[in-house]
Write a structure and sequence with these properties.
The protein has one helix at residues 22-26; strands at residues 2-7, 13-19, 32-36, 47-49, 54-56, 65-66, 73-74, 86-89, 94-97. It is mostly beta strands and 98 residues long. A hairpin with a 4-residue loop joins β4 (47-49) and β5 (54-56). The radius of gyration is 17 Å and the shape is elongated.
């Protein structure tokens, strides 16, 4: 059995299912499906980038931007490296020590 991501018309994952084939995954549905490789993380609300064949996790904050090399969102300010524990504050656009 294989894992498939069920996509809406904006290529957003709306379900993750197990099926034997792509045809079986898409049967009885108007949605398209993409096979998910064993080592790939995918969940509902991820987006499938057709051009690169990659799943992208949901954007955690409006200010974060997608890194085109890693396909992960990054904050506009780097995480502090002083050993503290921080949380992102979207209204201040900075890391706040917790």
């Amino acid at each position: 059995m294989k894992k498939f991501a069920v996509l809406n018309n904006q290529n957003t994952v709306v379900n993750v299912i197990i099926a034997e084939t792509l045809a079986a995954a898409e049967s009885g549905s108007n949605a398209s499906c993409v096979e998910v490789l064993a080592n790939v993380a995918v969940d509902i609300n991820y987006t499938y980038n057709v051009q690169y064949g990659r799943f992208i996790e949901p954007k955690p904050f409006d200010s974060w931007v997608l890194n085109q090399e890693t396909f992960m969102y990054a904050p506009p300010v780097a995480y502090p490296t002083d050993g503290g524990i921080y949380s992102w504050n979207e209204s201040l656009l900075e890391w706040v020590e917790v």
